[in-house]
TrEMBL record:
Domain THUMP per the UniProt entry, residue ranges: 74-151
Gene Ontology terms for molecular function: RNA binding; rRNA (guanine-N2-)-methyltransferase activity; rRNA (guanine-N7-)-methyltransferase activity
Protein species of origin: Parvularcula marina
Top-level taxon in the UniProt lineage: Bacteria
A Pfam cross-reference name: RlmL_1st
Domain Ribosomal RNA large subunit methyltransferase K/L-like methyltransferase intervals: 160-346
Domain RlmL ferredoxin-like: start-end pairs: 9-63
Taxon lineage: Bacteria, Pseudomonadati, Pseudomonadota, Alphaproteobacteria, Parvularculales
The protein's name in its UniProt record: Class I SAM-dependent RNA methyltransferase
Gene3D superfamilies named in the record: 3.30.2130.30, Vaccinia Virus protein VP39
InterPro entries named among the record's database cross-references: RlmKL-like_Mtase (IPR000241), RlmKL-like_Mtase_CS (IPR053943), RlmL_1st (IPR054170), SAM-dependent_MTases_sf (IPR029063), THUMP_dom (IPR004114)
SUPFAM superfamilies named in the record: S-adenosyl-L-methionine-dependent methyltransferases
Keywords: Methyltransferase, Transferase
Length: 372
């Protein structure tokens, strides 16, 4: 809970990716951060909240936790939620949506719990019930402990603001960023994706190389909360933008679908990355190693349950593995898939297999090689 100007900040992440996000959070200067199931907790002031939203590549949201208490029945929830410092965070009359979840608790009806919290909020701030695009309060009741958080992000942070064209079964930008980190990528080497889809992996890699803030092209919910200083926020963004890195690396994406290649190219233009990225139509059977230094091949192929089905996928993975072994000596490779049998079909010498990560109805893993 907020005390003496300090805020309890929580950056969410998909289960299994907490260690990678913890590395990123600490790398950005929040060295006392700690991993918890589903995210990373750390303390700071409002500028830390703004900076986390602007710079964190792997987080889904940035929440501010305003209180936690035991509640075993709705009357108790009602009474204790009225003691929360609502007015310190939410301006009067603001439209707010409350979302509640209940797990292993005596309060089991999430709708009733949300109504009690909404009532407390209205009494403190004259807030009105909002839609999904307005300010949001998240209430989690787990084993009778109620944690109340304010969402400071708005739209999920994987929505960078430039990617209008999205292919089938896209990998989220936040996932791509953390998988790149898991592969040891730090922006100092080329990255190639031979099945690039809408270009997510390539564009994330290029942004990291140029030191671009992932949130530079979008707005955030904290701009509508108390404590927001537009002047200080503008100064922060300007200082971060002025630290952009000049990169001479190249980032390449290939796909057999000409429409997807055009979409990736458009996404790169909107992101300001055209100068260091290229997207071309090419079948995986024609994949060749580009000239220049060795780097990383990271690919998110079809999984079977997702886009393609049957034996054709095994053949596709076999071809991918063969081309990588034949053409990419000195490079590292990462394969993202939900199917272990397909990963094994590549014949690649995987040195590490990552934890399962939710991806829609599936659970995907990163299969990494050492230098080929």
């Amino acid at each position: 809970m907020a005390t003496s100007g300090r805020l309890d900040i929580f950056a969410t992440v998909q289960p299994g990716l907490e260690p990678l996000l913890l590395d990123e959070v600490r790398e950005l200067g929040w060295t006392a951060a700690k991993a918890q199931p589903g995210g990373i907790s750390f303390e700071g002031g409002w500028p830390d909240v703004w900076r986390a939203n602007l710079l964190l590549r792997g987080a889904g949201r940035v929440l501010v936790r305003i209180g936690a208490f035991r509640a075993e029945h709705l009357a108790q929830l009602d009474k204790r939620s009225r003691q929360l410092p609502w007015a310190e965070f939410i301006p009067d009359g603001r439209r707010v949506r409350v979302e509640a979840t209940c797990r292993k608790s005596r309060i089991y009806h999430s709708g009733a719990a949300a109504e009690r919290i909404e009532k407390s909020l209205r009494l403190a701030t004259a807030a009105v019930r909002g839609d999904v695009d307005d300010l949001r309060v998240f209430v989690r009741i787990d084993q009778n402990i109620c944690t109340v958080s304010i969402d400071t992000s708005g739209e999920l942070l994987h929505k960078r603001g430039y990617k209008h064209d999205v292919g089938k079964a896209p990998l989220r930008e936040t996932q791509a960023a953390l998988f790149l980190r898991a592969c040891g990528y730090n922006g100092a080497e080329p990255v190639l994706d031979p099945m690039c889809g809408s270009g997510t992996i390539v564009l994330e890699a290029a942004e990291i190389a140029k030191g671009l803030a992932p949130g530079r092209g979008r707005s955030f919910a904290f701009e509508n909360l108390r404590g927001f200083d537009p002047s200080l926020w503008g100064q922060m963004k300007q200082e971060i933008a002025s630290a952009e890195i000049v990169s001479d690396q190249r980032f390449r994406g290939y796909d057999r679908d000409e429409g997807v290649v055009a979409a990736s190219t458009s996404n790169a233009e909107r992101a300001g990355l055209s100068s260091i990225t290229s997207f071309n139509k090419q079948n995986i059977s024609n994949l060749e190693c580009p000239e220049g230094p060795a780097g990383l091949v990271l690919v998110n192929p079809p999984y079977g349950a997702r886009i393609g089905e049957g034996h054709a996928l095994s053949s596709l993975y076999q071809t991918l593995g063969r081309r990588l072994k034949e053409e990419f000596s000195g490079w590292r490779a990462g394969i993202i898939t939900s199917e272990e049998r397909l990963a094994k079909a590549t014949g690649l010498p995987f040195s590490e297999i990552g934890p399962p990560v939710p991806h829609g109805p599936l659970r995907i893993r990163l299969y990494r090689t050492a230098t080929l």
